[in-house]
């Protein structure tokens, strides 16, 4: 799916300001033959819980899983405030141009995860966290 697929909840339920910034950036990126494919955007709490259970199984502990998957209570995906983009050309494009749209990579270990930081338009994106365990928002 792309950032223009309004019929899909993963896109349609994104925060309107985030979605608007994504669409503006995607339109500009298209001029460079880059398409923004959404791997995941908005997620239900139940799906987020499922992803966390799968990550605990994969990584062997809740602590290690937390480096990759947040709880339903803390995930910006559940609130519609984050998007994971597919295709390395899109994330490469955003790493060079995302701040112009307020779109910032938040975690160094997740080059696909972007959130809206409107202040980035003037100030640039904030320093990335190493991973979600370093993000104060992810603390229970």
Radius of gyration: 15 Å
The number of strands is 4
Structural class: alpha+beta
Shape: globular
Amount of helix: 25-40%
Mean pLDDT: 96
Helix and strand sequence: HHEHHEHEEH
What characterizes the major β-sheet?
A: 4 strands, antiparallel
Pick out the low-confidence regions: none
Question: What's the end-to-end separation, in Å?
Answer: 32 Å
> Please, how many helices?
6
Q: Major sheet: order of its strands?
A: 1-2-4-3
Beta strand %: 5-15%
Present the secondary structure layout.
Layout: H1 9-12, H2 16-30, E1 37-40, H3 45-59, H4 62-65, E2 82-86, H5 88-97, E3 103-105, E4 113-116, H6 120-123
Question: Can you describe this structure in just a few lines?
Answer:
The protein has 140 residues and is of the alpha+beta class.
Features:
37% helix, 11% strand
Characterise the protein shown here.
There is one protein chain. The termini are far apart. With 140 residues, the chain is of the alpha+beta class. The protein contains 6 helices and 4 strands.
